[in-house]
Design goal:
alpha+beta, Thrombin, subunit H, 3 domains, 8-stranded mixed sheet, 6-stranded antiparallel sheet, 23 strands, globular
């Protein structure tokens, strides 16, 4: 069993410093650099003891543990009460305990309203922290799927709810009816009653997630910050590309890359070039140094937060100049690259690749946008629509109804069939002209998936070509 400790030899003043970020902090969880993966026995002899409220948060989020434990979290939270009053920093956890059925000091209705107020507050940080807490709570609740014409607004079952079947969570059962928790388009929770439910345990996607408004024109910004990496998504990180430009200056760009296999990443081909297509690619690095919750414990403990990339393969038809000369179909239709890590990553499960199902419009992505706090993880759930069919080895292109920014390029798009997430493409660029101003992604085809598998297996490819790294001046010689 594991516990958490930051120090073993600290002054009293240092020991009084909170280990968990304050509710108003930009952080939800302690930073990676905090050394809290320490065996439980050490804490018994340390002058730096965690408060009960901090222990409640650690067990709720499962930091450094094989799994989170909501019952232990509730036990420590109860011990933190003073005159039966809950600490301010545990306000959302208090509501989560009530929804779970561990506490009845307020009603489930009021607990849900507490989350609704945060999500609809107009403050993006409060909203995303509340959504993150709900998604963590969902790990402790039975996941179900509603059935058409079997959901009601009231316990008397007199007011039918006009809802399409959706994933949610069963809270209580009362005879032949069930109290359930569902999410609206803002990700905010609502309580309903149901007379029939289907099992949804094989669909582990985030339920409390914002979605673009139905019928929205252009690209709506519905990005949502995450502080834990969802177990339902393939591991991703920041791709840092360094170049020496023609004038000798150093240029850096950041994209998103995703782990496909122990030694292999996938990203966008244009991330291997400067915006004008000039300059020599000097180095590539894969970084997973976001918040602690975004990093699997095994990687954090092995210090695999900055990994060198030894070689890169780009689509042979990709030319960076196409972005400026009107060849957008070829530019984005070839915007896929494969990258080989110098040191393998241990993976419990490899993500699956698939051709998009045109009947299923929803896709999900995780990325590290440049317009957000440095190296922070953001999720998007968008509708996709086929925009242009690819020719020969080029990918079909799909437009998305949600906003993207530099840094998100290279992120994979996940589509869920029968609950299982599959990678169906790579985010390319934002297309903007007189008729469109939306992001597009390069979709996988059957032949392209075979080519990707060939590269990973060390076999020749007719689509991907190896790209030279460090073929020009040395980084040490670059002008600042």
């Amino acid at each position: 069993m594991l516990m958490f400790l930051l120090c073993s030899h600290k002054s009293f003043a240092e020991c009084e410093t909170p280990r968990f970020p304050a509710p108003t902090s930009q952080n939800l969880l302690p930073l990676v650099d905090s050394q809290f993966y320490i065996p439980e026995g050490v804490s018994k002899f340390s002058p730096c003891q965690y408060s009960k409220a901090e222990l409640a948060q650690y067990y709720f989020w499962g930091l450094g543990l094989p799994a989170p434990d909501i019952e232990k979290a509730f036990k420590f939270a109860k011990q933190s009460l003073k005159s039966d009053k809950w600490p301010y920093e545990l306000a959302l956890l208090h509501a989560a305990f009530v929804i779970k059925g561990l506490d009845n000091s307020i009603s489930k209705v009021e607990a849900v309203r507490r989350f609704q107020r945060e999500i609809l507050s107009g403050d993006a940080l409060r909203r995303d922290k509340a959504l993150a807490t709900l998604n963590q709570l969902s790990e402790f609740l039975p996941r179900v799927k509603t059935v058409a014409d079997a959901v009601y607004l009231d316990s008397a079952l007199k007011q039918p709810a006009a809802l399409v079947p959706a994933s949610g969570f069963k809270l209580t059962a009362r005879g032949n009816k069930f109290l359930i928790l569902l999410a609206d388009d803002n990700g905010a929770p609502s309580l309903y009653w149901a007379t029939a439910l289907a099992d949804d345990s094989t669909s582990p996607h985030l339920v409390f997630q914002r979605r673009a408004s139905l019928g929205a024109h252009g690209a709506e910004d519905i990005r949502q910050q995450l502080w834990r990496f969802p177990s339902s998504m393939p591991l991703s990180g920041v791709l840092l590309s360094r170049f020496i430009q023609s004038d000798g200056s150093l240029f850096e760009s950041r994209c998103t890359a995703t782990v496909l296999a122990a030694e292999w990443l996938i990203s966008a081909s244009h991330c291997l070039y400067t915006p004008n297509g000039e300059g020599h690619l000097q180095s590539l690095q894969f970084r997973i140094d976001s918040f602690s919750g975004s990093i699997p414990v095994a990687i954090a403990q092995n210090n695999h937060r900055a990994m060198a990339i030894s070689s890169a393969w780009q689509h042979r038809q990709h030319h960076p100049q196409d972005q400026h000369n009107g060849q957008l179909g070829r530019y984005s239709g070839s915007d896929i690259a494969l990258l080989k890590l110098a040191t393998p990553i241990q993976l419990a499960k490899h993500p699956k690749l698939a051709v998009p199902d045109r009947q299923s419009v929803w896709v999900e992505s995780l990325s590290y946008p440049n317009d957000k706090p440095f190296n922070t993880l953001w999720a998007s759930r968008c509708r996709s629509t086929l925009w242009r069919e690819g020719e020969q080895a080029l990918s079909d292109l799909y437009v998305l109804d949600c906003f993207s920014h530099a840094g998100q390029s290279g992120a994979v798009l996940i589509q869920r069939g029968a609950g299982e997430g599959q990678i169906v493409g790579v985010l390319s660029a934002r297309i903007y002209n007189d008729s469109i101003n939306q992001p597009v992604f390069a979709a996988f085809t059957g032949p392209l998936i075979k080519e990707i598998r060939s590269i990973i297996a060390g076999e020749p490819s007719s689509v991907f070509i190896r790209m030279p790294i460090n073929s020009g001046p040395n980084l040490a010689e670059a002008n600042p």
